[in-house]
Design goal:
With about 200 residues, this protein is an alpha/beta fold. It is about 45% helix and about 10% strand. The radius of gyration is 21 Å and the shape is globular.
């Protein structure tokens, strides 16, 4: 239906996560309607991201300086280590402004169906940090999905021998949600995690 060049652009855009055929088509039309200058800036931004961004050698967050700004910040607590699956999880926690410790990014979650096992994640690096560090609390801030549960269970077995305080983010009802929309598992976790007022 479209010119081959336009179809190729749509096919390349569809390879991006969360971009289906309709979104890829909309983006392709946006590219065609954009000025040459806008497209040049987009290309430069993509090139710069690919060339300059890397993983922090300490926490494995995405950064353009090494160590990253969080690891280099002397004002952050060195007693707490928050373990997350992906850099996007770290960013979500930072937006809350509730946590002021260090991080460790695993680079994914255990998912045997997708061929991702413990050896594919930065678990060895986490164990090295626990041996070498002076942490008093390890916080597992991992999504409560099947993969997240498997990862948390695996990590908790490895971390317990260190005799450190091991915590997990609470589960339950999101703020502003109607209870009748919550599923049984969420309500169950909310009851299990209840606390004194």
């Amino acid at each position: 239906m479209y010119a081959e060049t336009f179809n190729n652009l749509i096919e390349e855009l569809k390879k991006m996560p969360g971009i289906g055929p309709k979104s890829a088509q909309r983006l392709a039309f946006y590219v065609l309607q954009s000025s040459g200058r806008d497209i040049d800036r987009l290309i430069e931004a993509l090139k710069a991201a690919k060339e300059r961004l890397k993983h922090c050698s300490v926490c494995y967050n995405i950064t353009d300086v090494n160590p990253c700004k969080i690891c280099a910040d002397p004002g952050r607590s060195s007693e707490q280590l928050c373990v997350v699956g992906e850099p996007k999880d770290l960013i979500a926690i930072e937006r809350s402004r509730e946590y002021n410790g260090k991080y460790h990014v695993l680079g994914g979650l255990i998912s045997p169906l997708d061929g991702v096992g413990p050896d594919n994640l930065r678990i060895r690096e986490l164990m090295r940090r626990l041996r070498d560090g002076k942490f008093s609390e390890i916080i597992l801030a991992i999504s409560p999905t099947t993969e997240g549960e498997a990862t948390s269970f695996y990590l908790s077995r490895l971390i317990k021998p260190f005799k450190l305080k091991l915590t997990r983010l609470a589960y339950g009802l999101p703020i502003g949600a109607d209870m009748d929309y919550a599923d049984e598992a969420t309500l169950s976790k909310a009851f299990q995690g209840r606390r004194d007022i």
